[in-house]
Amino acid sequence: MRLDGQVAIVTGGGGGIGKATCLAFAKEGADIVIPEVNLANAEAASAEITALGRQCRVIETDVADGNSVRQMVQETLDTFGRIDILVNNAGIFSYTRIDACTEAEWDRMMAVNLKGPFLCSQAVMETMKAQRSGRIINLGSLAGQVGGLVASAPYSASKAGVMCLTKSLARVLGEYGITVNSIAPGVAATEMAKNHPDMTDQIPLGRVADASEIASAILFLASEDGRYVTGATLDVNGGIRMA
């Protein structure tokens, strides 16, 4: 029970890597808050979490809207009284070529994928600082490291920004005992990647990741096992990129 008694916010926790992370955390003793726009998926995930004996609160939230994020954090504090872990998982994806990308698509990608982690991290910051402890884990991407093998330019750019934001937050928050890290998954078997072209011949392990394998890496960074890791990006990509 590595997270016994802790409270974790997992944005976009209704499906894919987010849901796998919620379940991994719950199995280790954490109570969960799921900020989501897809409430049906979030409620289904919540039912699985409560079946594991943990509490779960679903809060309709637009991570790209500061007021919505601040209200979600306040509701979390009103319910649980503390926030130990934030996983900035919520994100959107596209395959649009740069020469076909609209300004609106660019803006929305940046708002959800990059502004969202900034707003959520800022909103939990004071609580974690007062506690003198906390874990923030951001979802980056292989696309943010290589410019996107098939992902769109705005998606790749937003994820590169997330991984840089991670370092900036880690420098500021370290003195308060708060670690900030990011995960850079490669291709995972999730709904978001269902139309992704087959790249298994480029992956040394010969298969795409299961969402639970990404969640295991997030769990490591959220737990005491990862207490001396901060400002880092952990590659979980089956070897498709070796830095």
From TrEMBL:
Residues 6-186 form the Ketoreductase domain. SUPFAM superfamilies: NAD(P)-binding Rossmann-fold domains. It comes from the Eukaryota. GO terms for molecular function: oxidoreductase activity, acting on the CH-OH group of donors, NAD or NADP as acceptor. PROSITE patterns: ADH_SHORT (PS00061). Pathway: Lipid metabolism; fatty acid biosynthesis. One of its GO terms (biological process) is fatty acid elongation. The keyword Nucleotide-binding does not apply. Keywords: Oxidoreductase. InterPro entries: KR_dom, NAD(P)-bd_dom_sf, Sc_DH/Rdtase_CS, SDR_fam. Pfam families: adh_short_C2 (PF13561). Belongs to the short-chain dehydrogenases/reductases (SDR) family. NCBIfam families: PRK07231.1 (NF005559), PRK12826.1-2 (NF009466). This is 3-oxoacyl-[acyl-carrier-protein] reductase FabG. It comes from Geodia barretti.
